[in-house]
Every structure is written in C-alpha cells, then in structure tokens.
Task: inverse folding
C-alpha cells in the first residue's frame, strides 16, 4: 500500500528561526494536502497542492509540490510561538482510492520564545 | 455555518462495554471519514462513508468495529466489547466532495477504556 514518510519527527526552534518539514511518498500522487494540529486540538486544513512543481504561499508559510508529484515541503519563515503544533502532510493517490487520504506521521514543532 | 460536531467529547468505558461515537458533518457535506489517533502519532484512516453507503472500510478492524451514516441523523462509529487498546482520540471529518478533497475535522472524541 501507499506509504508516506514525513521528516523530521520533531523540530525545536527559537522564535524567529525558520522551519521546514518534508514529505515523501512511495507513489505518484494526485494531490497533497497539509494540515496543522495544535496540542490538544484537531487537524485544520491549510492547503492543497495539485500541479507538478506547484508553489503556494500563505503569509510566512510556503508549500511546494515536487516535479514528480511524490514529495512536498512546508517552510515557515521566522517562526512565532503561535506556529507550535504538529504539521501533517496528507497524500491522495486518487484513482480508485475513492478519496482515501494517507496521513504522514507528522512533524511536531516546538518554538521557544 | 456550524463546523463538524462530535459527541461526546470524552467517553469512559469499562472493558467489555460498547462505545458509540457520533458525528454530524458540516451542512451540505455528504462525505464522512473516521480516523483514530494515538498519543503523539499521526491519524490512521478507519472508514469513509457517503450517505447510507460505506465507500472504503479498509482501515477498520475486522471485528468489534462498525460505522454507519444513515439518511437522517449523524454518522455513528460503534465499538463493541471495548478493550484497553481502543483508548484513543477518534476524529470525524467531512468534505463537500469525495475524491480526496479537503476535509474539515471535528473536535474529536477521547475514548478511555478502564
């Protein structure tokens, strides 16, 4: 079955430093989504990437989808304490998967003030 | 527009009892997904339902677990004869379209089996 690897598992940064998490799939994807989950909270949809090589920005967050549509990254510039949480990439293989999404293990981000 | 509703938020059951978790999707959403999350782990897909139909239950344990999404009313995830290993957070999500579109999550039900 489809596997999604996300690294690193944990990341500790000082406030103001940058942060990047990477997601790699064993198969070519139809699209990839990113979610954020605050401690004790529920996942919240951030963005969906569909096109090969796509880059999208949301304020300090930059999302990229690889040319081969098998990997993706999320980069946060100048982290703030409000960025604390777990960031999940979520892979959609499409086709006959009927919308089933495969969650990566997540990267737990800690931001020290 | 109310978000995805789940109840109860916290549920304590003794081993052998039944747990029934409810999920009301966002208005206009006919696709519902259930996930299980263990502490500091990712979400594990359990089942995908569309009104009155189970589309994909490949993540559901073969025994004791069942799910439904009736024509009227919320989606229900039922766990019979709970065991300690069933203790986890169970999240429901809904989407306006299937085919891997973005999902909106409820606050989750934290199940504790004593």
Result:
């Amino acid at each position: 079955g489809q596997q999604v690897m996300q690294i690193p598992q944990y990341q500790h940064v000082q406030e103001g430093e940058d942060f990047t998490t990477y997601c790699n799939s064993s198969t070519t994807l139809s699209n990839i989504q990113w979610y954020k989950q605050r401690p004790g909270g529920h996942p919240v949809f951030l963005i969906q990437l569909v096109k090969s090589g796509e880059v999208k920005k949301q304020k300090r967050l930059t999302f990229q989808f690889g040319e081969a549509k098998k990997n993706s990254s999320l980069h946060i510039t100048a982290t703030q304490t409000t960025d604390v949480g777990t960031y999940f990439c979520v892979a959609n293989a499409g086709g006959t998967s009927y919308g089933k999404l495969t969650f990566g293990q997540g990267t737990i981000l800690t931001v020290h003030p | 527009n109310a978000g995805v509703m789940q109840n109860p938020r916290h549920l304590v059951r003794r081993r052998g009892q039944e747990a029934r978790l409810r999920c009301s999707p966002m208005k206009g959403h006919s696709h519902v997904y259930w996930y299980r999350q263990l502490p500091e782990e990712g979400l594990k897909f359990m089942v995908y339902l569309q009104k009155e139909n189970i589309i994909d239950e490949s993540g559901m344990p073969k025994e004791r677990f069942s799910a439904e999404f009736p024509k009227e009313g919320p989606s229900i995830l039922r766990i019979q004869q709970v065991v300690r290993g069933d203790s986890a957070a169970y999240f429901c999500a809904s989407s306006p379209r299937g085919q891997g579109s973005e999902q909106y999550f409820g606050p989750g039900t934290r199940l504790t089996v004593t």
The mean pLDDT of chain A is 92.
